[in-house]
């Protein structure tokens, strides 16, 4: 019985230490378009993150951003559209701005917990 109580206490203690830590949200860009794209992300604290010359089929690395509303805008080579999307970045989540080829081209936000 003592072993079970010790195991339960260890699990609860581990959760309190590791489960309650907040990691800042992170954003990256995945280009599904057939042309290069430049993506600008304006974060909630007023900073701007640029992912330039993202080649077709490639994904950039994650960059931490401030929690809150973000606006992503893409300029795509040989495409007159400049799609934009707004999303809310939340702690402990990774976000991917996906540049999607269409008529017109558009941006999609994928998210998953860290």
Strand content bin: over 45%
Please tally the β strands and state the result. 8
| DSSP helix fraction | 10-25%
Number of helices: 1
Radius of gyration (CA) equals 19 Å
Topology order in helix (H) and strand (E) letters? HEEEEEEEE
Helix and strand composition category: alpha+beta
Distance between the termini: 35 Å
Q: Estimate the mean pLDDT confidence.
A: 90
Strand order of the largest sheet: 4-1-7-8
Uncertain residue segments? none
Largest sheet geometry: 4 strands, mixed
Approximate shape: elongated
Structure explained in plain terms:
The chain is an alpha+beta fold and 114 residues long. The protein contains one helix and eight strands; from the N terminus they run αββββββββ. The chain has one helix at 2-19; strands at 26-31, 37-42, 48-54, 63-64, 68-76, 84-89, 93-100, 106-113. It has a four-stranded mixed β-sheet with strand order 4-1-7-8, with no helix packed on it. A four-stranded antiparallel β-sheet has the order 3-2-5-6, with no helix packed on it. The model has no long low-confidence stretch (mean pLDDT 90).
Q: Would you summarize the structure shown here?
A:
A hairpin with a 5-residue loop joins strand 7 and strand 8 (about 105-114).
Provide tags for this entry.
114 residues; alpha+beta; four-stranded mixed beta sheet; 1 helix
Structural topology:
Layout: H1 2-19, E1 26-31, E2 37-42, E3 48-54, E4 63-64, E5 68-76, E6 84-89, E7 93-100, E8 106-113
Parallel strand pairs: 1-7
Antiparallel strand pairs: 1-4, 2-3, 2-5, 5-6, 7-8
